[in-house]
Design a protein that fits this description.
The protein is an alpha/beta fold. The chain has helices at 4-14, 57-69, 82-85, 92-98, 114-122, 140-144, 150-167, 184-198, 211-214, 235-253; strands spanning 76-80, 104-106, 133-137, 172-176, 205-208. A five-stranded parallel β-sheet has the order 2-1-3-4-5, sandwiched between helices.
């Protein structure tokens, strides 16, 4: 297993690779993006693909968010997977009360790993906006889909932060921890990833560890904050997330 120093050394090499910029496709999508993306490392961008739906669905969702963002007026951008997406579901009342007034936009997409997040940043996810803070929660789907070791997933998260900063240097990043899970082995992996990403962050990043909010002293998740799968959050989970995060976010917006 790599030491933390080894991770940081490898990360410095990975993060030196620039990312391309692509224009929104006219009249449809690149045919290759309508199939499963090739295998790759957590820091290598890859488009998303929802096998259970029409192949175009993930692309339509991404470009729909791009068009929404282009309208501007966004001070806070939420970027992540289905747990972030859930602010529009179980967390919608909290969102309407506390985050709409902050000019927040949620572009979380269910199933995304670090790779899809990087592809989206590469493909206009922040086009037309200058967010003051980007709230990022990502990584759990890397665990579910076996996309990288814990050290590699941490590198993927660091690459996302690097690309956010490259595109919007004035933006701050509020990086939230990967949440504990009902599966003990997967939860242990999340905890290790959190330790790795928290070890060293640039000055424009604030790491917010939510583990103590969602995990009890017995090491088990606080079940009432989750849905039955003990992965996604119920309404009380979004209320708990809000309580822990909002004061930090407001301070970062000042």
């Amino acid at each position: 297993m790599k030491s933390l120093c080894g991770v940081i050394a490898a990360l410095s090499l990975v993060l030196s690779v620039p990312m391309a910029v692509h224009a929104q496709p006219a009249g449809g999508f690149d045919p290759k993006t309508l199939a499963q993306a090739p295998q790759g490392k957590p820091w290598e961008p890859a488009w998303g693909f929802w096998a259970q739906a029409t192949p175009e669905s993930w692309q339509q969702t991404h470009w729909g968010f791009v068009n929404q963002a282009k309208k501007g007026g966004v001070d806070v951008l939420f970027l992540g997977d289905s747990i972030t997406k859930g602010w529009a579901g179980a967390g919608k009342e909290v969102w309407a009360q506390h985050y709409q007034p902050l000019k927040a936009l949620n572009i979380g997409i269910g199933g995304d790993t670090t790779r899809q997040t990087l592809w989206r940043l590469e493909n206009q996810a922040m086009e037309g906006i200058q967010p003051k803070v980007v709230v990022l929660m990502i990584g759990v789907n890397n665990i579910f889909t076996a996309t990288g070791t814990d050290e590699e997933i941490a590198q993927g998260i660091a690459e996302i932060i690097k690309q956010i900063h490259a595109k919007r240097p004035a933006a701050k990043v509020l990086l939230t921890s990967v949440l504990p899970l009902g599966n003990a082995g997967q939860s242990a992996r999340a905890a290790k990833i959190n330790r790795l990403v928290a070890a060293k962050q640039p000055s424009f990043v604030r790491f917010l560890d939510l583990t103590g909010t969602f995990q009890g002293a017995d090491g088990k998740v606080v079940a009432e904050l989750y849905t039955a799968d003990l992965v996604h959050l119920a309404k009380p989970g979004y209320e708990a997330w809000d309580k822990a995060m909002r004061p930090v976010l407001i301070a970062m917006l000042r």
